[in-house]
Specification:
The complex is a heterodimer of chains A (158) and B (302). In chain A, helix 1 (13-42) packs antiparallel against helix 2 (50-78). Chain A has helices at residues 13-42, 50-78, 82-87, 98-104, 117-127, 134-138, and strands at residues 2-10, 89-92, 142-152. By secondary structure, chain A is α+β, with helices and mostly antiparallel strands. Chain B has three domains: 1-32; 38-145 and 225-267, 2-enoyl-CoA Hydratase, Chain A, domain 1; 273-302. Helices cover 49% and strands 16% of the residues of chain B. Chain B is flat and about 85 Å long. The model of chain B is unreliable at 56-60 and 294-302 (pLDDT under 50). The chains are: A alpha+beta (158), B alpha/beta (302). The interface between A and B is medium-sized, with 29 and 28 residues.
Chain lengths: 158, 302
């Protein structure tokens, strides 16, 4: 009798990028698109004033917070963002605490010192063996994919 | 949450994020000082009393904040798309300092500045207009009124009638000069008048310089009297009499433009500004409302 054995393994890079692309598309539709007009008016064909620069920083901050909310709420509630769902990958954490998920996503907040993670996080994702972000690694979180292994079993061995 | 149950939550979250984004973006577009549509002529409205703050502008009189005017001039001057600046004036004047600061901004602008006196451009507003390269005024518009005023009500007689005494406690002989609770001494009146005359003279000099008129001629006109647009043209205080179409034609001709596209340079009042002002006003009236019965009770029990 054939039986499927389900196992977890680190999600491959292509699935991570697919998930990221889908999440960006979702965010573009539901979040970023609302800011397009504001950003366009702040970046006209003239020299950028200090005030406009400050306004742009605020817009960047607001966008970062909204992305943070999107990722954190979905990961905490379902272990997956919409991108993860589409790519069939999921996060597994030592416990289901909100703080752990939230802390792992501070990368999306465009404030110092979190902006340093903009380099560290993707770099770790690319070069680490199991392709995990830096924040995920230190918090013991893994982005994994489910795969099935065919296992031949016999009734009498059970 | 598994299966079908999670989707309503996800949809709700996305809709909520969308709503928040829309609201936040709306708020940013309100506060954004650079939210100017495209155009080749910057219109800077000068409506109301020219002052350095606009605290009174929400519910009471209209105020043209000199800081906003200066900022708008600088922004328009730095915008390559803008070919000329038009001051759209409808103001009775205002503070001498605020008017002078706005006037200096006009003089320092690299672009050609036009002033259109729509309905009223008197006193400080005329001072501002005089710095423009060309002044266009409606033939019935009020303009001129080159003078300085510092009048106030003297309540000392009223206080005396009600047996109220002004208890003068000052360190510095003239510290309470101009208080409405006592009469000015002839010496004080002379001192104040002297300063008014200095400002008046500065005003006259500025107009003479800006309009390339002899100072003596401006002095003759500077009686504080206002003039109609057509009269002002004869006196040399304005260049052209006309309406907004005239303004467009003149700009088109001077700047060699095929089309004139006006874009208003005006600080957009943020929702936060309005809310803040409302809460301040509400707080003031609430405080007053509470304090009145408390004070009445204290009086009654005393």
């Amino acid at each position: 009798m054939r039986k499927k054995k389900e196992l977890w393994r680190p999600a491959p890079l292509w699935k991570r990028f697919l998930a990221l692309t889908i999440d960006l598309l979702v965010l573009e539709f539901f979040v970023f698109s609302h800011f397009e007009h504001v950003i366009r008016t702040m970046l006209p064909g003239r020299t950028l004033s200090a005030a406009a620069l400050a306004q742009l920083s605020f817009v960047g901050g607001a966008l970062g917070i909204l992305v943070f909310i999107y990722v954190t709420v979905l990961e905490y509630s379902f272990g997956q963002t919409l991108g993860y769902m589409a790519a069939n990958i999921v996060i597994v954490a030592p416990d289901s605490s909100l703080w752990r998920i939230a802390l792992s996503n501070v990368t999306f907040l465009p404030f110092f010192p979190f902006i340093m993670l903009w380099i560290i996080d993707p770099l770790t994702l690319l070069i680490s063996n199991n392709h995990q972000r830096f924040m995920h690694t230190i918090l013991g979180i893994n982005v994994v994919e489910l795969y099935a292994l065919d296992e031949v079993t016999t009734q009498w061995k059970v | 949450m598994e299966g079908i149950r999670k989707w309503p939550w996800i949809i709700m979250l996305l809709l909520l994020l969308s709503f928040i984004s829309y609201a936040v973006a709306g708020l940013f577009s309100l506060v954004s000082e650079s939210t100017y549509e495209s155009g080749n002529i910057a219109v800077i409205p000068v409506n109301g009393i020219i002052l350095f703050n606009d605290d009174a502008s929400y519910f009471t009189e209209s105020v043209a904040n000199a800081k906003d005017i200066v900022n708008a001039i600088k922004q328009a001057d730095g915008n390559e798309e803008i070919k000329a600046i038009l001051l759209d004036i409808n103001s009775p004047g205002g503070s001498a300092v605020a008017s002078m600061e706005a006037t200096n901004a006009v003089k320092h602008a690299n672009k050609t500045v036009y002033a259109f006196i729509h309905e009223q451009g008197t006193s400080g507003a005329y001072w501002l207009a005089s710095a423009a390269h060309t002044i266009i005024a409606n033939e019935l518009a009020l303009t001129g009124s080159i003078g300085v005023i510092s009048s106030y009500l003297d309540f000392s007689g009223l206080l005396q009638d009600y047996n109220v005494t002004y208890q003068r406690l000052v360190a510095g002989k003239y510290k309470d000069i101009g208080t409405p609770y006592r009469k000015l001494s002839p010496e004080e009146e002379a001192m104040l008048q002297k300063r008014l005359d200095v400002i008046h003279d500065r005003f006259i000099s500025a107009v003479a310089e800006n309009r390339h008129l002899p100072k003596e001629k401006v002095k003759e006109l500077a009686t504080g009297m206002f003039y109609l647009g057509s009269e002002a043209k004869d006196m040399g205080l304005v260049d052209i009499v006309g309406d907004i179409d005239t303004v467009s034609e003149i700009i088109k001709h001077d700047m060699k433009l095929d089309e004139v596209h006006y874009v208003e340079y005006k600080r957009k009042r943020s929702l936060l500004d309005v809310v803040q002002k409302l809460s301040t006003t509400f707080g003031f009236w609430l405080g007053r409302g509470i304090s009145t019965p408390v004070i009445s009770t204290l009086h009654m029990s005393a």
